[in-house]
Amino acid sequence: MFPKKIVLGWMVLLSLTFFLQTATGAELTVYASDSFTSKGSLGELLKQKFEKINGIKVTYVSFPSTGEALNQIAIEQKQTHADLLVGVDNSLIARAKQLGAFLPLEIKGVKNIRPELLFDRELHFVPYDYGYLTFVFDKTRTQLPSTVSLQKLALDPAFRSKIVIEDPRTSSIGLGFLVFAHEVFDKAGYVQFWKNLSRQLLSVAPSWSSAYGLFLKKEAELVLSYTTSPAYHIEKENKHDIQAVVFSEGNYRQIEGAGIVKYTKKPELAKKWIEFLLSKNIQDEVATHNWMYPILENANVPASFAKLPKVTKVVQPDPIKIESSKKSWLREWASLMGKP
Amino acid sequence: MRNGCKIAAAAVSLFFLLAVLIFPLSWLFARGLSSSVDYSIWSDPFFWSVVRFTYWQAACSAFLSCVLGTTAAFLYSDHVFPARKLLWHLSLVCFSLPTIVVVLSFTGFFGRSGLMNSALAALGIDPFIQVYGWVGILGAHVFYNFPLFLKSVGSALEQMDRTEEMAALSLGASRLQCLMLITFPKIWPVLKSCFFLAFLLCSSSFLVVLILGASPKFTTLEVAIYEATKIEFDIPLAVRLALVQLVISGIVYFLFLRQSTLFVTLRPAGAPFIRIYHSSKKMQNSLLITGLLLVVGVLAGGPLIALVQSGVRGVFYLGREFLPTLTTTVLLASLVGVLATAIGISLAYCEKHVNRFGIGRWLAYLANIPLSVSTILLSVALMLAYPAVHLKLRGSLLAIAVVQSTIALPLAFRILHEGFCRIGDELYWAAASAGASPFQVLCDIELPLLKGPMFLSFLLAASFSIGEIGAVIMFLSEKISTVPLWIYRAMSQYRFEEAYGAAVVLFFFTLLMYVAAGFLERKLYGSRS
Lengths: 340, 529
Fold this sequence. Notes:
Chain A is α/β, with parallel strands linked by helices. Chain A has helices at 4-22, 34-37, 42-54, 66-76, 93-99, 150-155, 172-184, 187-200, 208-216, 229-237, 267-278, 280-289, 319-337, and strands at 28-33, 58-63, 84-89, 126-138, 147-148, 163-166, 201-205, 222-226, 242-244, 246-247, 251-260, 293-294, 314-315. The model of chain B has no long low-confidence stretch (mean pLDDT 84).
């Protein structure tokens, strides 16, 4: 019943697994969301360049969202493997700081950042890019003017079950959109907006990547993304049909930052990594690898960025206000959406 | 020390069940009812909408699976048609598929840009099937639950004595009267038992709802517990959600236990099988069979074709980094197979030999409790009961293996219990007359005769582990990546080619293990269909 060769082969395979599992030794561990670490992303480029220049191995631990990465640090506390956390945005920063698990930083290059983009005055988190939330569409399938009203879009029967947004409980962009709606509508308008929008939704995806994937697979016609997303299709695919709208109500500015976990045993190395992230060398790559605006004004952006819609009315609520209301907002949102 | 072997088996079984199952679940129960917790959740409308949706979708899914599976069982048992064997094998493939593969196959076939809607679009018909939401959730649940009815009801119909039906027909009763008044009451316990099992499985649905529901509108308790634990980091909420799930699943499990016996009177040995439920009109038969094959073909065959079509191409996109993931999955599956089989043997041994105070019988009842518990629920219970151990074991294969093998325990126990039952009494008498100790009986008689059931138990527990994702997600760390998690990640990062590639690898692995298990089962027990 149990031929010896099969048992022997099985044992060799298991030993190989143990070897492969133990053969990975990291020097610097970075917790980040899947979108930061995926193939061809800014994270991958940063890792390659940093490892090559400094001879230090960088290991990314990917999570479906930055919120989950932050939860992991909250659970692990002193036992965390993380040296750095990347991707914390305006909607998460107050909570991240409340944890008290991040070091205040003195980083070279911060002085070159525009003051309104410094979303954390105490510099526990240093911003490295920003973008504006909006809906993206393919003009071969959908016709929309360059500026649209969000309230009208939520009512348009042409978009019934054709919009995909990200879940605010799992995705920072989804949470940004929720915060934005709170900021631009009054109480009654806000409730009505979500009731209307829920009829237009094909799916509430757990992350930006999965939402955008649904859009690219032509499952959805509108996806919640960034005004800079069309640049990717112009640069990488020479495709000019993917376009972004500007909301007449204004657009939410999302800023992303990185911080050093205070339990790290390699603070200098971690600081070096953040300084490298803010260096012109990497900032020049932000536009073409993370498809966001680089935080340094003098960083290069491709010509396609000139064709992107210009946001004139910026919405950027106070992170402390977001954190204090977030739980009740999420509960209220779930109740508004949770009526099958 | 003649009873040393029995005491050791009882101690091991009791320790495992108490430490891994009973204590954590009791702890969870106690925390959920604790007076120090905030009770505002009971008045939260979202909470109640989650509870309502969980059990409503489970009831709908179980009902639809019952309708399709039972119809298929009647047609399968009473008709001879060309694709009869294919229908049987296809249903077994559906039953064996890991959930993540089912979800991916469904989006590949029923998605707006999937095979079906693309074919409809080519014919000038607008896509009308919406895989996200109710259709996707119910479709996926029916996909892997209808085989449960087909196999159980089909076997009951083929094995039952049909003398009464023949007598009724010869006295002038119509086939419908015969079906409703004689056959249906006979298979009713089997149907109820399958319904409760399908209801239990669907009420703890996780990945199907997480991906195909993709909205708070479609949140099950299982998804809500996961979100509360891993995303919202709201443990009190997770505890109360888990408490509700535990209580309701416990009640359904109790109902399932009461029905889990096959009550049909078996056909006498050698008596021929008489086909009753087929129309005398050929046209009517053909229409019925074509209809059934069309439904099963679209529901089960379509997604599998989409999976293989995209997956074979996708295999070439899999990079070298996939190899450690695959080997980790195999290692984990092996661990689960060994652990579930070892505990299963210990429990089955107690059930057979430890009769004092009914310990063996009680242990057997306890061994079936995991049928009403999901991997997510058990993981939360273990995390809360042993917080320090959880932090130490987070991301270790051992923690995941313990959870998965506990959930696979009823399966392992059933196989090994049956194995013990098949050992002839004459062997025990012979051993007793030769003065053999229980330990000698175990080593020289029982274990050699149990090789087949042990291997079968190992294979089935390992197959379960290979496709399981709940425990992996709950004990997630950078050190662990299994194939289902890898697929989920690839889907989230819109690396669909790689996701399909990995899914097809997982599909063939699982299929291979189930085919081997089926082969072994036939060898051990003979054909049951």
